[in-house]
Amino acid sequence: MRDALIVDAVRTPSGRGKPGGALSAVHPVDLHAHVLRAIVERTGIDPASLDDVISGAVGQIGEQSGNTARWAVLAAGFPESVPAVTIDRQCGSSQQAIHFAAQGIQSGAYDLVIASGVESMSRVTIGSQTAGRDPFGAGVAARYPGGLVPQGISAELIAARWDLPRETLDAFAVESHARAAAAWNDGRFDAEVVPVTMGDGRVVDRDETVREGTTVERLASLPPAFEDPAWTERFPEIDWRITAGNASPLTDGASAVLLASREAAGRLGLRARARVHSVAVAGDDPVTMLMGILPATRKVLERAGLAIGDIDAVEVNEAFAPVVLAWLAETGADPARVNVNGGATAIGHPLGASGGRLMTTLLGVLEQTGGRFGLQTMCEAGGLANATIIERLD
Predict the structure, then answer these.
(1) Which among 239, 220, 221 is positioned nearest to 229, based on CA atoms?
(2) d(Cα 54, Cα 284) in Å, to the nearest integer?
(3) Any idea of its EC number (predicted)?
(4) What is the dihedral of CA 199, 200, 201, 205, to 10 degrees?
(5) What's the mean pLDDT in 206-219?
(6) Is the pLDDT of residue 130 over 90?
(7) Fold of the 4-126+249-274 domain
(8) Which of 47, 96, 264, 357 is the most buried (most CB within 10 A)?
(9) pLDDT of 382 strictly over 90
(10) Any idea where the domains of the chain sit in the sequence?
(11) Is the torsion defined by CA of 281, 47, 8, 108 positive or negative?
(12) ∠ CA 364-366-372 to the nearest 5 degrees?
């Protein structure tokens, strides 16, 4: 099997995913096109040599509909001959795009591929693709007669079942913001972020979502985000610990990762930063849907022949604070190696772009710390999760 190499990875800064956010004036196709152009310019490849562009987007409706990846390729100025496809594995969509790109290279079907993702949550609001519709049908309703739950309720169930107090969740969030602010102040994000110049000439070059200096006391004043007596009746163990402060914010952003076969990298004179070592995807209970990261982590470590102690840097998507804390409790991973430069609680979670964003950050952390192996995993709606292990190359 051929090696799938990661040549480079970039992301936009994170903008607040609501009207007036730093990137809210940018059409998602144009935001996506920005990172596609950036990765081509940084690596010097001829875009005509791309075998495919595989992209994630969750809200595939309105301005992100109609195979949005294709329009981003054309908006980026790539030749019309460059194909593109948009996929949806919910929050893990662009991580799955990386997997598909790597698998295509390993099989011999591809030589040079961009895996990318975009989400403009200010313009395509979360849940808009299913608003007023039943996405499940009678078969799912019969299998889960109690009904499925929103992700916020799943996060509450995890906090209750792993006995994670509100103060612990808020302290985790404060640490995430502190780590992200320190990474920005130390220049650790400079190599991964491509600034966005707005139509009025304003340059967005820093994550708008990071709250430097926030405190546990400040977060303690925030009300529960999902409190509802109907859910308390069904799940009496819930005591409402999830707030806007210990969950990821609505976010606008895009990311792109260039992958190549070893042969193509040599032919084109590309210096690879890492290789995709092992990948996995797992399914889990769709009610407590956010803990698929546990079987996914176990599966990818087994495939890689590694233990959690062999992993030098980890990115676990901070959709909600209890997700990462429960993962830490179950895996025994060293918290000092997890989300070293902060996580989605601070950096944001632009759904379809988050998998690429985590990979971009993971590459940077491995290079900054001299680590060899990196693990990335993220929860996804429906009880799914992806996990990826990469190996840094000198």
Answers:
(1) 239
(2) 25
(3) 2.3.1.16
(4) -70
(5) 98
(6) no
(7) Peroxisomal Thiolase; Chain A, domain 1 (3.40.47)
(8) 357
(9) yes
(10) 4-126+249-274
(11) positive
(12) 150
Instruction: Sort residue 151 into left (φ over 0), alpha (ψ -120 to 50) or beta.
Output: alpha
The Cβ of residue 138 has, within 10 Å, a number of other Cβ atoms equal to 8
Closest alpha carbon to 176 in 14, 338, 326: 338
Is the CB of residue 273 less than 8 Å from the CB of residue 359? no
The yes-or-no verdict on residue 25 having pLDDT over 90 is: yes
On the 0-12 / 13-18 / 19+ scale of CB atoms within 10 A, 369 is middle
Q: What is the pLDDT confidence band of residue 394, given thresholds at 50, 70 and 90?
A: confident
| Contact of 56 with 88, CB cutoff 8 Å | yes
Map tokens 């990071």 to a residue: 210
- Closest Cα to residue 115, out of 239, 10, 262? 10
- CA–CA distance, 342 with 327 (Å, rounded to integer): 16
Residues paired with residue 278 on neighbouring β-strands, in sequence order: 389
Of 226, 215, 256, nearest to 354 by C-alpha is: 256
Paired tokens of 92: 């893990």
Output phi, psi for 258, to 5 deg: -100, 125
Q: Report DSSP letters for 215-268, one per residue.
A: -HHHHHTSPBSS--HHHHHH-TT-----BSSSBPPPEEEEEEEEEEEHHHHHHH
* Token representation of residue 13: 């800064």
Residue 326: which of 159, 151, 165 has the closest Cα? 159
What are the E-state strand segments in the chain? Answer: 4-11, 15-16, 52-56, 84-87, 112-120, 196-197, 203-204, 251-261, 274-283, 313-316, 373-380, 384-392
Residues annotated catalytic, as ranges: 91, 349, 379
Dig out the tokens for 169 from the structure: 């969740």
Q: Which two tokens stand for residue 111?
A: 């030589």
Q: Give the amino acid at 370.
A: G
247 residue type, one letter: A
Residue 215 has pLDDT above 90, yes or no: yes
According to DSSP, the residues that pair with 384 across neighbouring strands are: 283, 380
Residue 393 amino acid letter: L
Q: 306 pLDDT exceeds 90?
A: yes
